């Protein structure tokens, strides 16, 4: 008997996703303290002997939202493609959500698996967790230098 047929399907945990998005929002504001006035940030990070840069570019600023484009550049990118992502900050809700990665825009809350794009059932949550991990890396795993543009 196939074990995957008995596996329960993924169900969105809205409380967990909101917590991740709220945490990402506050981490971004801490990393980018003048986000309401400054459009470009470059943060240098290092881990062990490896060096990298995270570039933040404000693409759109509205009354209640700010859209950031985040790109990564690192000396380990020869063997690992680093993603480009777009993150929308919702200031009224104090949340930050990944809205696109590479060329994929808009993510469904749940995907059936397997699917045409081979996205995970919880792809949206995984992307927000990935952003959280990168922001945590900036705070704890490397050295962040402020004010470099």
TrEMBL record:
Pfam families: DUF1249 (PF06853)
Protein name (Swiss-Prot/TrEMBL): Uncharacterized protein YqiB (DUF1249 family)
